[in-house]
Specification:
This protein is mostly helical. The chain has one domain. The chain is 81% helix and 0% strand. The radius of gyration is 23 Å and the shape is elongated.
């Protein structure tokens, strides 16, 4: 595991200390969890943004419709068996 050093505003550091005590977690573990959650949120937001962009791309919509037609046919074939 690598070491990372950073500066934080006093108010944020105080809030970190209070929360770490309340949760009975070391500050570095709390920072690690918070950063991990934040990065996950960013990744999800980018994923949503890409879907919104794809929603406006006719070529992507055409491919999706073709794929849904194929999927529907597969379901029908499976029901016929």
């Amino acid at each position: 595991m690598a070491t990372f050093t950073s500066s934080l505003p006093d108010s944020l550091l105080e809030q970190l200390s209070i929360t770490a005590k309340e949760l009975k977690l070391p500050k570095n573990k709390l920072i690690e969890k918070a950063l991990s959650l934040y990065l996950d949120q960013i990744e999800r937001a980018q994923y949503v943004k890409s879907f919104k962009r794809a929603n406006k791309d006719q070529e992507v919509l055409d491919m999706a419709e073709e794929g849904m037609a194929d999927y529907f046919k597969m379901l029908q074939d499976q029901d016929d068996q």
